[in-house]
Each structure stands twice: as C-alpha cells, then as structure tokens.
C-alpha cells in the first residue's frame, strides 16, 4: 500500500492504479461489521434498494408491505458505531402509499429531490422527497420505463405522467428492464419467455437484437426455436459500470455475460447460480475495481463472482431468509443487501489492524489510532480516534 | 440405519478395506496449467469397457472436467480448441440440456466402423465419418445442410439413422450420436441416482470422498465410483468441501 502511494507521488504509477488496487482489496474483504447497521423499519421483506448516484448518501428501500424508506448512509457522528437511520418513511398511514408490495424503487438520476416507485397494485408513482407526496407536473423532463405483466414495455414521460411509447416484441411478461449507462437511448429488457431484447427508443421499429445464448450455433439448442438467452425465465438484468457488458440471470440456474454492443455471448462459465425466484432478482456489479465482481443473491446468501473469469470468490452469509436485492456503493466499496427477513445488511470492507501506541503513559488513556482510507474522487484519509 | 452402524464395534467391522496409499488432506490436481487432454485420458481409464462388450467408445462428460480443474471458462476454451482441432467430438446426450458427452475422434471412428462390419449401411457410414465428422464441429445437422453441403440423399440419411450415427431431434434435424449408447445412458442415470442417494442418506447429507469410494456399491452402480463422483461434483449436484480429512461431499438441496 505504501509502495503504491510513493509510486503515485513520484509519478511512476498512474493515479488510477492505486485507486483500483485499493478498491479491489476492499471488495475482497467485504464482511459484516458489528459497527454498521441499517435501521429496521420494514415489517415484511425488502424488495428493492437503490442508492442515489450523485452523492451516494441516501438509500431508498421498497418493501413487500408497500412501505418506502429513505436512509442516510453517511456517518457524521464521529464514532465508528453507526446505524444508518431512516430519514423519512412512506408508511401505511400515508395517503399516497402503495396498496400492495413495492417492487422497484429508483432515485431520479440527477438529484435526490424525486424518486419513482412501482408496485403490484399496477401503479407507478413519482414522489417528491421533501413532502413525500406523489407529484405531477414537475419541471424536469425525463423518461422512465415500466415493464408490466403484459409483454409490452411502456415508456412514460415523467413530466406529464403519460405513456409516450410502447415497445412490443416480447411474448411473455417482462421481468426486468434497464437503461444502458453508456448510451441514453439503449434499453435492455428481460422476460419470462426466455428472451432478452435490446432496444433503441429512438427507432419506431422493433428491437435492435435479441440475445442468443448459442451465438447463432443452432446445433446446440434443444430445438430450432427462436433465440433464447436462457433455458428458462430471465429474471435478472444488469449492465456493468461502463455499459460495455450485460449480465443476465435465469431460472435455468445460469448467469451469462454478453457484449452489449454486438449481443454476443462471451461464454464465461459461472457454474450453477441458484435461482428460483419468480420475480425480478436485483443483482449488481462492482465499479472501480481491477477484476470487477458480480454480487448475486443466491438463496439466503450473496455470491461474489469474478466478472470475466467466472470463478466464485466467496459467499456472503448473514441473512436469515432469501435475499432479494443488493446494491453496491461505489465510493466506499460497500454492499447493501435486503431480503425476506426484513433486514438490510451492510457489508463493509475489513479495516486494517490498529497499530498500538508503543509508549503509553500511566496518566493518559491508551489511544488506538485507526487509519481508514476511503477511496473516492480524491483520497480522503480519516483518522478515527477509538478510545 | 446409521445408529446401527455406529453401535457395531471396530473389531466386528470386517467389510472395511484400508487403503494403504491414502493421501492426507485435499488431493488437488493443481499444477498451474490446465491440461485438459490428460484429464480426459484419466477419465477415459475410468470408463468400463467390459460392460458394453467393447462396442462403445469411451465416453466422458464435459462437466466431469469441472470437478478436476477449478476454472470452468478455461476448461470450456480448451475443449473448444480440441474440438476445432478435430481431436475431440462432443455429443448432446439427451437426458440434460447441459450434459455433453466427449469422445476422442479416433476412438469414435474405430468403434463405429467395427460395429458396422458386415452391414449394408457400412459404405454410407464410412462416407459420413470421412466427410462430416472430420470437418464439422457441430452437434446437430439440419436437412438443408445434409442435402446441400454434404450431398447426402434422403435414403442415405435414413440409413445413417438406422445405423445409430444420427438421432432424430426435430422434424428435419438430427443430433450426432453414438450408436448403441442407449445402454450407456440408462446405466449412467441409474448409477448417478444411486450414488446421489448414498450421499443424501448419510448422516447430515455429507460423506468423505475417500469413504464413499471405498463403499461396496449396489448393483445399480455399474460404473467406477470415481466416474460418478467426478460427474456429480462437476454437475454441482453435490458440493466438494476441502477438509482436514480430505474432500467432503455434501448433498446440495435444490
């Protein structure tokens, strides 16, 4: 670590190298920490989590009871022991609360003033974070997608609240939809009919291409049918941070990595990724590490795989019941996962050991200084005094 | 049943045979290089030729390699390289979409021709082996392809199906197959089920690999125990956990 620092200082190394090396070391050391906790508000399972993209400070969570909670993840208390407290909640008593379980929550990508939630009560609501009321007629134009039980994908305009575009092509219910982080107009959708389609919303015609797990080699498929991405329902979809690759998981217990530009299956073999979820599985990819990692909920634990080699690194065990969603905090290399046991667990990188003060006087109390390096835009070094 | 086993004292345990060359700890084939070909040769030795009266070539399964080498993507790449080089043939065995059988091309050709001795279909099969098997690396063929690229007539295709080299897949498409492999598939599935039941019935659903290899197998298990173990570990039906007494196989509930 000091070697990396001096090399960066002397200009021998690219500044990015130190950052990547440290991020990777931190991700490999993810573990449950007794000092970090998330407030337990949900009384039923947690279905979706989202961390805002700008500051990485606030986390949204949507539960099976229709409750939506906003947590503050930053620790300004000065003590290492911190419980991420719930800043505000849309509880069952609110006038605008969803009738049934909330399936997706997402922050507005440009600021935390607004968020969107969709639920099983067939509605999608746009909320104002200050007042926690459903709003219409806000001044920002933006688009959002809605995947519904029917095979159609509807694009809604957030400004007016109306549906502007319908994407047709799937034959079964659409389970997951994602915008590409690289191009604003590219969208990928996964459905229960085993197909994953990539769309360009500027085009009037159908999808750009459908992902084929055999890469056109019809001889391997079970029958001469259409291109399928999986041999079962496709219930998870995730783009990598740079948008160049797309990951899909399906109920055939497989996870596949695709080239998002050409739609080619990169044939990375992750082995058996247990998946028996009937609805969407929210999984995530790390950002800023040297070999990127995929965090997939696998039963009651979260499996960590190396993205390009497919080897399983570790299983993060801690939940008492099925894990439904997980989200990676890129600035602090932390992982938040929520599941049916109503808990949101925070997986924190293991801190380096404290260096004990060698000469301690009898008068003064012994102080252990802990050095924690937090990698973000510029390297912040926090000294936490632990008595 | 387990209680009964535990109550019998050691002096009465005549069935247990001690393996003198027991290795301590985990037996990893780790040498840095993924030598898939030598692993295939090793699996070849586990295949029981006598059982099929030497009529079948030695069949290995692709996922058995996953139990020997840790990096699955590398194994897949090596297998494709061998297939492109014409040394290895891959077959869709039929009982599982993900279970692929691997046979060395030389073995396959020798056994098929030996099986075709004195039969009417022999010249057609020879022609098929020469033209198609040598050049093509696909698992299945469509009617279009057979007629246009390889110039086989309909009657010739029927003869190939009769001889067992092609199996019907869809209307107008065929899988490449191994003649007389039905018996293999039957014994294999039977044996796999029996071995899995043995692991599942053990206390806590787990058993040491060295112990299960020593056990007396039922008549259901016709293959070598190691062949089945490589298969169930590679197919992730059991988990192989390294322990201080060797590898432990734990049944995976799914």
UniProtKB/TrEMBL annotation, chain A:
InterPro entries: Rad28/ERCC8/Ckn1/ATCSA-1, WD40/YVTN_repeat-like_dom_sf, WD40_PAC1, WD40_repeat_CS, WD40_repeat_dom_sf, WD40_rpt. Pathway: Protein modification; protein ubiquitination. GO terms for biological process: proteasome-mediated ubiquitin-dependent protein catabolic process; protein polyubiquitination; response to light stimulus; transcription-coupled nucleotide-excision repair. Pfam families: WD40. It is found in: Chromosome; Nucleus matrix. Keywords: Chromosome, DNA damage, DNA repair, Nucleus, Phosphoprotein, Repeat, Ubl conjugation pathway, WD repeat. The keyword DNA damage applies. WD repeats lie at residues 95-137, 167-202, 227-268, 316-347. PANTHER family: DNA EXCISION REPAIR PROTEIN ERCC-8 (PTHR46202:SF1). Part of the CSA complex (also named DCX(ERCC8) complex), a DCX E3 ubiquitin-protein ligase complex containing ERCC8, RBX1, DDB1 and CUL4A; the CSA complex interacts with RNA polymerase II; upon UV irradiation it interacts with the COP9 signalosome and preferentially with the hyperphosphorylated form of RNA polymerase II. Interacts with ERCC6/CSB (via CIM motif); promoting recruitment to lesion-stalled RNA polymerase II (Pol II). Interacts with KIAA1530/UVSSA. Interacts with a subunit of RNA polymerase II TFIIH. This is DNA excision repair protein ERCC-8. The lineage of its organism: Eukaryota, Metazoa, Chordata, Craniata, Vertebrata. The gene is ercc8.
From TrEMBL, chain B:
It holds the Pfam family Stk19. It comes from the Eukaryota. One of its GO terms (biological process) is positive regulation of Ras protein signal transduction. Belongs to the STK19 family. This is Serine/threonine kinase 19. The lineage of its organism: Eukaryota, Metazoa, Chordata, Craniata, Vertebrata. The gene is stk19.
């Amino acid at each position: 670590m000091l070697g990396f620092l001096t090399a960066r200082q002397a200009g021998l190394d690219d500044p990015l190298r130190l950052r990547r090396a440290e991020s990777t070391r931190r991700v490999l050391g993810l573990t449950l920490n007794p000092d970090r906790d998330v407030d337990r508000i949900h009384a039923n399972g947690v279905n979706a989590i989202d961390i805002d993209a700008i500051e990485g400070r606030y986390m949204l969570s949507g539960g099976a009871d229709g409750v939506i909670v906003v947590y503050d993840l930053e620790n300004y208390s000065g003590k290492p022991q911190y419980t991420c407290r719930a800043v505000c909640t849309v509880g069952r008593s609110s006038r605008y609360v969803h009738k049934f379980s909330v399936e997706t929550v997402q922050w507005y990508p440009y600021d935390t003033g607004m968020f969107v939630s969709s639920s099983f009560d067939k509605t999608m609501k746009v909320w104002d974070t200050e007042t926690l009321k459903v709003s219409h007629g806000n001044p920002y134009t933006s688009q959002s997608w809605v995947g519904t039980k029917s095979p159609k994908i509807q694009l809604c305009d957030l400004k007016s609240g109306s549906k502007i575009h319908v994407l047709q092509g799937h034959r079964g219910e659409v389970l997951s939809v994602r915008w590409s982080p690289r191009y604003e107009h590219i969208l990928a959708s996964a459905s229960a009919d085993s197909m994953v389609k990539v769309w360009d919303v500027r085009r009037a015609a159908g999808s750009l291409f459908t992902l084929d797990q055999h890469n056109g080699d019809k001889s391997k498929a079970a029958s001469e049918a259409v291109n399928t991405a999986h041999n079962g329902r496709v219930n998870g979809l995730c783009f990598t941070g740079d948008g160049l690759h797309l990951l899909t998981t399906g109920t055939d217990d497989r996870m596949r990595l695709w080239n998002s530009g050409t739609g080619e299956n990169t044939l990375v073999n992750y082995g058996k990724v247990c998946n028996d979820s009937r609805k969407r599985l929210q999984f995530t990819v790390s950002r800023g590490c040297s070999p990127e990692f995929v965090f997939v909920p696998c039963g009651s634990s979260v499996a960590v795989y190396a993205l390009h080699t497919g080897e399983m690194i570790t299983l993060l065990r801690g939940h008492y019941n099925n894990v439904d969603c997980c989200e990676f905090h890129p600035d602090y290399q932390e992982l938040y996962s929520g599941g049916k046991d109503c808990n949101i667990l925070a997986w924190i990188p293991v801190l380096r050991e404290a260096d004990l003060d060698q000469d301690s006087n009898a008068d003064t109390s012994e102080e252990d200084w802990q050095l924690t390096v937090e990698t973000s835009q510029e390297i912040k070094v926090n000294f936490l005094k632990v008595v | 049943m387990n209680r009964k086993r535990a109550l019998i004292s050691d002096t009465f345990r005549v069935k247990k045979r001690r393996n003198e060359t027991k290795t301590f700890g985990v037996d990893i084939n780790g040498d840095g290089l993924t030598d898939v070909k030598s692993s295939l040769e090793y699996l070849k030795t586990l295949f029981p030729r006598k059982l099929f009266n030497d009529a079948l070539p030695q069949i290995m399964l692709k996922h058995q390699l996953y139990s020997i080498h840790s990096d699955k993507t590398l194994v897949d790449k090596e297998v494709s390289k061998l297939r492109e080089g014409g040394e290895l043939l891959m077959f869709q065995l039929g009982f599982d979409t993900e279970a692929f059988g691997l046979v060395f091309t030389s073995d396959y050709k020798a056994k098929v021709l030996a099986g075709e001795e004195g039969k009417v279909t022999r010249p057609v099969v020879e022609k098929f082996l020469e033209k198609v098997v040598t050049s093509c690396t696909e698992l299945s063929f469509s009617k279009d392809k057979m007629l246009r690229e390889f110039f086989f007539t309909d009657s010739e295709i029927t003869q190939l199906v009769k001889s067992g080299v092609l199996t019907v897949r869809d209307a107008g498409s065929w899988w490449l197959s191994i003649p007389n492999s039905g018996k293999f598939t039957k014994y294999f599935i039977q044996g796999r089920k029996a071995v899995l039941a043995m692991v599942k019935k053990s206390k806590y659903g787990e058993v040491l690999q060295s112990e299960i290899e020593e056990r007396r197998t039922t008549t259901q298990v016709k293959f070598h125990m190691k062949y089945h173990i490589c298969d169930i570990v590679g197919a992730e039906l059991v988990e192989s956990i390294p322990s201080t007494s060797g590898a432990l196989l734990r049944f995976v509930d799914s």
